[in-house]
Amino acid sequence: MNEQIQGSNHLQVFDDLESEVRSYCRSFPTKFQRASGYQLWDVEGRPYIDFFAGAGALNYGHNPPEMKKTLIEYLLKDGISHSLDMATEAKEHFLSKFNEVILKPRGLNYKVMFPGPTGTNAVESALKLARKVTGRQTVMSFTNAFHGMTLGSLAVTGNKFKRRGAGVPLNHAVSMPYDGYMGNEVNTLDYIESFLNDSGSGISLPAAVIVETLQGEGGINVASNEWLIGLADLCKRYDMLLIVDDVQMGCGRTGHFFSFERCGIVPDIVCMSKSIGGYGLPMAITLMKPELDLWEPGEHNGTFRGNNLAFITAAGALDYWKNSQFQLEIEANAELIRSVLAGIVLSLPDLNGELRGLGMMQGIAFQSGIAERISAIAFERGLILETSGTDSEVIKIMPPLTIQRAGLELGLRILTGCIYDAAVENKSFAEAK
Ligand SMILES: *Cc1c(COP(=O)(O)O)cnc(C)c1O
Fold first, then answer.
1. Do 257 and 263 contact (CB within 8 A), yes or no?
2. In degrees to the nearest 10, what's the CA dihedral of 402, 407, 409, 414?
3. Whose CA is nearest to atom 10 of ligand 1?
4. Are both 289 and 332 inside the same structural domain?
């Protein structure tokens, strides 16, 4: 009754009851009801094309039918739902399949750890393990890095606003310039090595280096293959562990299952979450080289490390990786995105847009501060599109990897219109001034 009086799409309950900390619902102010594939619908039946994909947790789209079917069957037969970290059939199935489909064909030999089911927990466990194994305290991280919201992860995160939220000093970390941070002419690895080499630099030898191969939250900054290979080499030469945070770029986002496959490096530790559960269900894994697995039983514990519903869908998601077909589809989609974005940048020279990204994680950086306006117009036109970067200066195009061609084309057409209209607004505003 109340709902009818207020209008079914009212957001009053959230304003009244939910903490001010809520964020995405402010950029996309409607009440969502259902979703399928690359689309969502709100309570008024309005469709939206999803170019955000749960920040990378929905690489396989919303409610993928095969995984849904397997999950429902598992629920109906009273399969284990929660199991702490006890051995279950569902976990066994995931582990074996992950080894067969992902690790073995890539010649990778990792032990799999299940931390709490979030990205930041995978990162915390990686940092702990690196410190334990090396007996050193400092971890090197990079400018504009994002690794999560808990204290250890925040200490290796760049963003000032997020860091300030900690309320305590964030220590035992040292931030160094990411690839390209000092301009195209400077190889930041040389700069970093000069610190490691110099006993007067004020930096003690780090336990590990934690890196994203492509910084998603930090502005869609891509590290070059050469730089990543050089970084892996630097880690070897100075006996530092290399941790790749693949929480957002893993599971195919940049074209391969692991984002580091493009340059052939083999990290010592890999953090995964977001899409690893396949269905948007909470799950995380930390991969480590077997010789690093020096954990004592229970040393990094957690109640929800046995989310068996996620193990079921995570195993289902691995079917996408049984052959190279999916990878080819991602590549084709990536090319379409790239060509449309390049066309936009070329036809609007006044905006000075800069193409960013790789695979199905691409975007345009704008100097003029219109990225947030573009996102707002896009929402009005039924397209969910986020911004990224310290000043939200980059529009971020990250649809589900499984998006159909027609959906991708339509979304890109809407996006193009939004950018043109935001550019016109921007121009008339500048002229009025
Ligand atoms: C999202 C993200 C995290 C944190 O994951 P949560 O599940 O939000 O804790 C860590 N690292 C990267 C690169 C991420 O994108």
1. no
2. -130
3. 147
4. no
- Which of the four pLDDT bands, split at 50, 70 and 90, describes residue 7? low
Q: Which of 155, 162, 153, 157 shows the shortest CA–CA distance to 120?
A: 153
Give the number of the atom of ligand 1 that is nearest the alpha carbon of residue 215: 13
DSSP code for 37: B
CA distance 151 to 173: 11
**Beta-carbon-side half-sphere exposure of residue 319 (alpha carbons within 13 Å):** 13
> What is the total residue count of the chain?
433
CA-to-CA distance for 198 and 132, rounded, in angstroms? 25
Segment holding 40, helix H or strand E: strand 39-42
Q: Total structural domains in the chain?
A: 2
Rounded Cα–Cα distance for residues 345 and 420 (Å): 10
Q: Do 331 and 347 fall within a single domain?
A: yes
Structure tokens at 72: 């429902």
Question: Which amino acid, residue 58?
Answer: L
Cα separation, 113 vs 123, in Å, equals: 12
Ligand 1 atom index nearest CA of 249: 13
Q: Note whether 7 and 145 are same-domain residues.
A: no
- Domain residue limits at 196: 66-321
The residue whose CB lies within 8 Å of the most ligand 1 atoms, and thus the one to mutate among 21, 222, 248, is: 248
Q: What is the pTM of this model?
A: 0.96
Q: In terms of domains, do 156 and 304 share one? A: yes
Closest CA to 263 of 273, 271, 254, 251: 254
Q: Per-residue pLDDT tens for 203-258?
A: 999 999 999 999 999 999 999 999 999 999 999 999 999 999 999 999 999 999 99
Cα of 404 vs centre of ligand 1, distance in Å, is 26
- What phi and psi, each to the nearest 5 degrees, are found at residue 364? -130, 130
In this structure, the residues whose C-beta lies within 6 A of any atom of ligand 1 are 55, 118-120, 123, 146-148, 212, 216-217, 245, 247-248, 273-274
